[in-house]
Amino acid sequence: MQGRPLTRSVRGAVVGSLVLALTATLSVSHARSHAVVDTQTIALAELPKNGQITHALIFKGGPFAFDKDGTVFGNFERILPRMQRGYYREYTVRTPGRSGRGAKRIVCGGWTPASPDACYYTHDHYASFRKIVEKTNGQAQ
User: Fold this and answer.
1) Residue 80 and residue 83: Cα distance in Å, rounded?
2) Cα–Cα 20 to 30 A to 74, which of 15, 22, 85, 109?
3) What single string gives the DSSP state of each residue in 83-107?
4) Which one from 34, 46, 77, 90 is the annotated catalytic residue?
């Protein structure tokens, strides 16, 4: 049994529907991959020396080496817990041998920058985060 050929408008509608369905499927899959917040921890003492210095400066309120330090971090990667815009701030961890900012950062969350609720270290420019804790191995913070 042969059917009639589809008109151009019907073909366009079918293709459009398929594109929308595929886009919706990819969006849901992308959202699911970023919905789970799973950050490991790193002890403050395990941070690189420059990370420890940056961490101490955060709690002192500076001074910081780069203009971007202390600016709002958007959390567009959605790896950190979702919070209202302005909750997270980013700070550069100097990388020896680099004149620019490099990839290492500390991102802190809280409404008072010099007294954050939590800080996270990334060595790979926001691709992964480790929550900074005072101690590891089940010891109290």
Assistant:
1) 9
2) 22
3) --TTSEEEEE---TT-SS--S-EEE
4) 90
Known active-site residue 134? no
Is the CATH number 3.30.70.2740 carried by domain 40-133?
no
| Known catalytic membership, residue 123 | no
- Residue 118's nearest CA partner among 106, 128, 127 is 106
SS3 call for 60: helix
- What CA–CA distance (Å, rounded) separates 27 from 81? 19
The H or E element that residue 28 is part of is helix 8-35
Q: Where are the domains of the chain?
A: 1-35, 40-133
> Model's pTM, two decimal places?
0.70
Q: In angstroms, what CA-CA distances link 122 with 41, 42, 91, 128?
A: 11, 10, 10, 6
Rounded CA-CA distance 69/10 in Å is: 54
Q: What is the mean pLDDT of the chain?
A: 80
Chain segment 106-116, per-residue pLDDT in tens: 999 999 999 99
Looking at 46, 55, 77, 125, which residue is catalytic?
Answer: 125
